[in-house]
Amino acid sequence: MQRIKNESGSQLKFWFLAFRPKTLTAALVPIVASTALVSALQFTVHWRISIYALLASIFIQIGTNLVNDAADFKKGADKEDRLGPKRVTQSGIFSYRAVMMMGSFFFFIAVLCGIPLVMIGGWPIVFIGVVSILCGYAYTTGPFPLAYRGMGDIFVILFFGLIAVSGLFYLHTHEWRIEAFVLGLQVGLHCAVLIAINNLRDIDGDKLVDKKTLPVRFGKQFARYEIAFLCFLPFLLLTYWIQVGFAWVGIGLLALPLAIRLSIKIFKNEPGPIYNKFLAQSAGLHILFGSLLALGLLL
Predict the structure, then answer these.
(1) What is the 3-state secondary structure of the chain?
(2) 26 — pLDDT class (breaks 50, 70, 90)
(3) What is the model's pLDDT at position 2?
(4) Distance between CA 258 and CA 252 in Å, rounded?
(5) Is a pLDDT exceeding 80 seen at residue 83?
(6) Domain locations in the chain?
(7) Is 82 left (phi over 0), alpha (psi -120 to 50) or beta?
(8) In the prediction, which pLDDT does 76 show?
(9) Which CATH number fits domain 21-298: 1.10.490, 1.10.600, 2.70.98, 1.25.40?
C-alpha cells in the first residue's frame, strides 16, 4: 500500500513539474495589470471576471506547455543532452500519448472556465478563446508549428500581452482602449524575454532538428540585441503613461537595473546551462515590472 502511495505521489510531482510552474507567472501578470488598469480608469472591477480569466489563461498555458513537451520530444528537439530542465516525455516518465491527452484535458478545462466570460463578452471573447487554444496546439505541433517557424516570440507578445490585457479590459468595460494596448505591449514584451533567452540557449540543438527560431535564422548576436530590445522597450513606453497623467507608473523604472544586468550577462556569456539562471532572472523582471505597473496605475 505504501509503495502505491509513493508511486502516486511521484507521478503527481512529475505532472506538476511538467506544467512548468515557474512559467505560469506569464498568465498571472497580464491579469493583474489589466485589472489595475480597469480600476485606474474608474471602471468597476468584477473580481469573478478576473478570476475566471486567470484560470482560463493558466490552463491554456499548462496545456500549451504539455503539448510542447510531447511535440518537441517527437520532433527530436528534446534529447538527453538538452541544456534546459529535463522534460517528462523525453525522460520517459510519461508517454507521448499520455502527455498529449493531459494537454488536451487542460485545454478542455480552459474552455469550461471561458464559458462565463463568453456569456459576458459575447463573440469577441469566443474568437479570442478559440484562437488562443488553436495557437496553443499549433505552437509546436500541426502543419505549421509556430515555434519551429520563428514565430514563438510574436505568439507570446500577442497572447500573453496584447490579447490577455485588452481582452480582460474589454470584459470589464466593453471598450477597446489605447491604454490597454500599451499596457499589453509592455507586459508581452517582457514575457517574450523568456522565450528569447530559451531559444538562444537552445540554438545548437534547434539547428539539428531544423527548428528555425530567430537565433537559428539570424544568429547569436541578433538574438542578443533582440533580448535587449525586449527588455528596454517597455521602459521607454513608460513615457506614454506620464503624458496621459499616470505619473506614478514611472515607478516601473525601479526594475530597470535588473533589465540592465540581465542584458549585460546575455552579451557576456555564450549559450549554455548558465542561461537557465538568466531565464529565472527574466521571469523576475517580468513579475517585478508588471507588479510595479499595476501599483503605479492604482496610485
Answers:
(1) CHHHHHHHHHHHHHHHHHCCHHHCHHHHHHHHHHHHHHHHCCCCCCHHHHHHHHHHHHHHHHHHHHHHHHHHHHHCCCCCCCCCCCCCCCCCCCCHHHHHHHHHHHHHHHHHHHHHHHHHHCHHHHHHHHHHHHHHHHCCCCCCCHHHHCCHHHHHHHHHHHHHHHHHHHHHHCCCCHHHHHHHHHHHHHHHHHHHHHHHHCHHHHHHCCCCCHHHHHCHHHHHHHHHHHHHHHHHCHHHHHHCCCHHHHHHHHHHHHHHHHHHHHHHCCCCCCHHHHHHHHHHHHHHHHHHHHHHHHC
(2) confident
(3) 42
(4) 11
(5) no
(6) 21-298
(7) beta
(8) 63
(9) 1.10.600
230 and 196 in contact (C-beta within 8 Å)?
yes
Output the nine-digit C-alpha cell for 228.
Answer: 535587449
Calpha distance 21→93 (Å, rounded):
18
Residues 109-138: what's their mean pLDDT?
A: 89
CA nearest to 52, candidates 144, 127, 118, 138: 118
Query: Could you tell me the three cell numbers for 81?
Result: 543532452
